[in-house]
Amino acid sequence: SVQIETPMENLYQITRTILNTPEVDLKILVHDQELLCEKIGTVDGEFFEKFSQLSTQLLSRHSKEEKKDKITLPCIEALGIDVPQFQISHKDFERLYIEVLYTIRHKIGASTGQYSHFVDELNVYAKEAFGIQADQHEKFLTLAAEEKPPIIVLNVTVVEAEGLEAKDPNGFSDPYCMLGIQPGCSPVTQHIAPTSKDSSPTTMSRMESRSLDECDTEEKAKAEAPSDKLKRYHHRLLPFNIPEKIMDSFTIPFPDMKSFRLSFKRKEHANKREHRNSLSNAVPARYIRATSVRPHTLNPKWNEKFRFDMEDITADKLHLDIWDHDDETSVFEAVSQLNKVRSVKGLGRFFKEIAQSARAGNNDDFLGCVNLALNDIPSTGSDTWHKLQGRSIRSNIQGQIRLKMWLSTREDSGASEEDNWTEVIQHEQLLKIFADYCIKKSRAVGKDWNGEYDEAALTILHQHAIQGDLTEIQQSMCQWTSSFKIHIEKNLDCRNLVTLCQKFDELWEEESFSWEEEEALKEIFNVFIEFHLEQIKRIREVFPAGNRIAYQRLLNKIRCLSYISKMQIYRRCCPFRKEIKSEVAVAIKQGTLDWYERISKYERGVNRVQFLIKLTKTLNTDLYQGLTFYNKLFEDNINISYFTLAYKKLEKVLADDIVKGLETLQAPSDISGEVSHLCQRINDGEKIQETSSLGIHIGVEMLELFVVLQEFFGFREHLSISERKTTIFWPYHEWFSPILVNWLDVAKCKSMIRVRESVDKDDLTPLESFQAHTSSAFDVTSTHHKIKQFWKTLNWPDHVAASKFIIVLMEIICMTSSFYNKLMKKRISPEEIEAQNLEKMSLVVNNIEHVRRGLELLPNDFGFDMTVAVLLKRQGEKSRKQFIDRFTELMHSTTSELENTILAMLSKSVEKINLGINKLTFRLAWSPDSLPTQEGVCPLIEYLNSHLVTYDKLLLKVNFERLLTIVWEISVRGLVKQGEPNKDGEEEKTVKYYCRLYEALMILMEYFRADGQGLSIDKLHNQTYRTAEQSLYLSKMSTDQLVDMYYARRLEEQTALENYEFGVLSVRVYYYHDSLSVEIIQARDLIPLDPNGLSDPFVVIELLPRRVFGFSNQQQTTIQKKTLRPLFDECFEFPATLEQCQAQDSMVLFTVMDHDVLTANDFSGEALLSLNSIPGLNQGNSTIDNFHGLKPFELPLMFQKNKNNPILKTLENRFWDKSAQEFYKKQRERILSKR
Predict the structure, then answer these.
(1) Contact between residue 1101 and residue 1207 where contact means Cβ atoms under 8 Å apart
(2) Residue 297 has what DSSP assignment?
(3) Are the C-beta atoms of residues 542 and 626 closer than 8 Å to each other?
(4) Neighbours of 418 (CB within 10 A)
(5) What φ, ψ does residue 1150 adopt, rounded to 5°?
(6) Distance (Å, whole) CA 202 – CA 206
(7) Does residue 918 contact residue 871 with C-beta atoms inside 8 Å?
(8) CA distances from 324 to 302, 334, 362, 649, 945 (A)
(9) 777, 847 Cβ separation under 8 angstroms
(10) DSSP 3-state helix, strand, coil percentages of the chain (rounded to 5)?
(11) Is the dihedral of CA 739, 740, 741, 745 positive or negative?
């Protein structure tokens, strides 16, 4: 193309302004359409609106369900759910309160941390928590003071030792421990247990010492013989199997053992009065305890527990020895020495003998000892490593021992100390009472209880636990059971129970509970699970969907049930109960059925269809809530699909009710014939206001029932694939198919009436919000939208049947669109268009375009691609093709009809512009050669701009582009017209003339492109432009250029040939010694041109272009008679320079002719060979011998098949150019069509 010079400033200004106005296009929401079209619905009683509202109602119903956070949680008692109560009797309540006061009165252990309250503070708190009046409180305090004081017990667990000294030859020791209580004063008489009732409870205990496993009562001990007591005592305390004959010799009364000597060592060279580190005189003692022997170790682990009754906790100490056991007989012998003990002093001699024996080296070796004060033991106990000490300052002892120590009490009542079930029950009740009190205080300030007790309550509970010697797991059990009970009674959030379950389960060990404790746990497990299963059955009422608090409470409840199912103690206590997961699933299913029964009974009393609609809506809402609210809770925490269980139960019961309801209804009759007749009458212009003559009533209820059923069964998509296979299959849509057919028939008439009414009421006044349109366009597209929305809401499940309904819907929309197009064309006459009533014309074409663009969305709106895929899969290619053909036929014919109407009106409106364009292009074409084309084209552009700006303000962008395309076509044709051949009397059209027209064409193209804001390149380069551009481009070239171009294009055509239909010519061409050698070897497969079926061929050789090879005349071969495969084998020399052969477009033309004697020779084909790549041009001084073996060129012969070749046409029109006419005449004889 021609390089255009920079246009003048005014031309650029015009190009910048045109098409840069803001786009006036339709960009509105459906909601805005409906606001504009409210009145048209009154024509048919809002026929389409009633059905299109079904999907809106569905969305609004779901949105309402998501806004329930402010719903108050119901009272479960009001729902009929029984709440278990765990109240204690009044008598037990008073006893428990006295027990609390008794516990406070006899606090034990050093106060530490949170357990450092004073007695008075604890009494006040207990009074408030129990709700006791002041006078009653004083009474109960007196009763608690009159109770016998408890006996303080020291609990010691010998855990382990490490780093002991090796005493055996193998480098190890066999350590065991002996331990006992060392009174605070050494004289024996000072440590005889006093019996006065007035003595202090901490220093006047009358309970006999005993081991951890001793369970005999005081009365039984008094009835036994002294020897039996001693035997029982040693059987329980010592870890050795003492022979019966030794035990039978024990005759010393058990209460007489009151002292022993411990850990002393007599030094051989020391003063006899030397002070001993552990013992200076006979040491009074309560008991001696011994651990088991741990053989061959320096780091023994025992973990053995012992108990000691205390007389004076402020003065008593714990003494412990570690010995290396050498042989069992020495232990038995040492124990047998107890037979010689007659007093406390004798017991001291016994240990003295043990020590002396150890010192002599022939019995057990001493490894170390510890002496510990007991008055500093905290109430929480201690777990500490203690460094071992020697018997004197000079002893060399190593290692340390770990001891756990804590204090507890027991009552001197004669009951078994191991049986603390009463204390366990009391502790649980106490926890529950304190929890009740904490809840009341929290609710008084408007807060929920966080599960934490007051510090005073914790102190009382702690004292009660240690005084009752409750183990850690017993305390955990009490806290767990009391929390479960309080949560059941108060219906509290279970968020704290999971933590309690985890702690409880971690502490539990096999055989850690008594039978009574396991039975109590079993009961609370069963009550708790049953209570919460009942709530799950009523989950819809107890935990309303959308409520944030209900969500959290349900989440914690499910987590708690899930954790309980994994607890070891649960499986131990409830081995025969079903898995909790399965029980929850059963509760969900049963609760769903119960709920359905309640709502179905409640919903009855209305007509059958309304009942089914309302019932199904309720179920849909419930399933939606189950899917979005409940399902994730159950799936994530207990691995149950709540939605699946609920859906499958509801599906079955609903299907039964729907079948019963539909069986009572009558199917509608066929009205298609009457509908077609009515539609034809409306199309012919008859004013039909109503369709009541159809004699049917398409009730909204029936199709609404289908929609809600479709929504219900659509929830199947949320089931897993395996679960989906087990659901029932019920083709419910088949019953509604006749109803849908009738609705579509009626919709045809209704939509036709709406279109006619909308056009009649349209006064072609622009809307305020959308100046480019009037009301009728929105009325029509709104009707179409409601039809599409209705179909989308139906979501017909049978895609094969749906394809037929889609075609019917397409027919309705296309028919009404065509009808609207027909009516709108009548609103403006051709005379009005010619009179340049542009505003009215623009409104009409904009309205039609608005409707047309709505049709382009139909494939997506009706799911075209999916329907095609389903038809191919289920019905085969034939059904698929039929659907595609009918759908595209309706689509294409209607959109083409509307577009043609728009183009016709726009073309009519620019007829006057056409005259001006032709006039200005004539002036441009014949302007003086001295006037630049850029200036000559300005009047034309200014004229176009003045008219197009008006259209740009009135038309939609797409319509304005159509108008631009029309005007562009007119402008191009105007230039083409000026470039037509000279007529008689016209001035000669020179090359400069055509150059000016070509440049004007390029300028106009840039104007209409408008810097990318106007017409696209594809629209600009239409067929008219391509023809004009080629014609003007060729016309502005010289004859020689055209001839060169003609042969260059012929060479390109020859290169692209794939078949050789006119024969082949074999030649050899090379450059040698300043001449071009051409060898004509042979030809084959020539076409027969003589009557005998043969030819008399010869070849004419010519060098081209002629202006380059002006002195090289053409030459020809001899004539070969009667053959189609002539063998020439002739060589020709052409004088030519190297530069001539290397020139651009240099080539050899081979023309094969058929010699005739009487008539002119016939053309048999031509071939071309470019000289740019022949041998010899780039090989220097080569000898001729180098070219004899060259492979010949096989050139296909050609005919000119295009009789309208543009180059030949251009040359033909150059009447004033003799050479052009001669070339044209020569080539005309070679056109194939002349044969």
Answers:
(1) no
(2) B
(3) no
(4) 12
(5) -110, 120
(6) 11
(7) no
(8) 14, 14, 12, 74, 120
(9) yes
(10) 55, 10, 35
(11) positive
Measured N-to-C along each axis, helices 799-825 and 733-761 cross at an angle, to the nearest 10 degrees, of 10
Residues 6+ apart with CB under 8 A from 697: none
How far is residue 820's CA from residue 683's CA, in Å, rounded to a whole number?
10
**Sequential DSSP letters for 946-988:** HHHHHHHHHS-HHHHHHHHHHHHHHHHHHHHHHTSPPPTTPPP
Whose structure tokens read 């039964």?
Answer: 656
The first and second tokens of residue 190, run together, are 């000072």
Listed in sequence order, the residues at least 6 apart from 1099 whose beta carbon sits closer than 8 Å to its beta carbon are 1065, 1080, 1083, 1116, 1117, 1128, 1150, 1151, 1152, 1153
Whole-angstrom distance, CA of residue 26 vs CA of residue 959? 12
More confident position, 1074 or 1017? 1017
DSSP H helices, 715-774, are: 721-725, 733-761
What tens digit of pLDDT does each residue of 1080-1093 get? Answer: 999 999 999 988 99
Residue range 994-1042, pLDDT digits in tens: 899 999 999 999 999 888 888 999 999 999 999 988 888 888 888 888 9
Q: Are 828 and 837 in contact (CB under 8 A)?
A: yes
Rounded-to-integer distance, Cα 400 and Cα 398, Å:
7
Strand, helix or coil for residue 944 = helix
Per-residue pLDDT at 374: 85
CA 613 – CA 1186 distance, rounded (Å):
100
* Terminal C-alpha separation, the chain: 37
Whether 178 and 288 have beta carbons less than 8 Å apart is answered as yes
Tell me how far apart the alpha carbons of residues 848 and 780 are, in angstroms, rounded to a whole number: 10
Do 252 and 341 contact (CB within 8 A), yes or no? Answer: yes
CA distance 617 to 251: 92
- pLDDT by residue (tens digit) across 867-910? 999 999 999 999 999 999 999 999 999 999 999 999 999 999 88
Q: How far apart are CA 291 and CA 274, in angstroms?
A: 32
Q: Residue-wise over 837-860: b if at least 16 C-beta within 10 A, else e?
A: ebeebbbbbbbbbbbbbbbeebbe
Half-sphere exposure of 302 (CA within 13 A, CB side): 27
901/894 Cα distance (integer angstroms)? 11
